[in-house]
Structure of IS110 family transposase:
Amino acid sequence: MNHSIFVGIDVAKHHHDAYIFDSKTGEVITEHFKFNNDSGGFESLVTLINQFPNNSVLIGVEAT
């Protein structure tokens, strides 16, 4: 697979912190953003990720 869009997520109890960038161009797609640990928060994350082809996205999750 040739992933070029990286999504890094730092997991916490009430909200999560994330960052999205394009590894091919070095472009920061989204600066640091927070989303709630609920269905609305995850819907906002999915909306951001869905703008890219599925096979180009790699998501990394780090729990604190």
Notes: The CA atoms of residues 42 and 63 lie 16 Å apart. The longest strand covers residues 28-36.
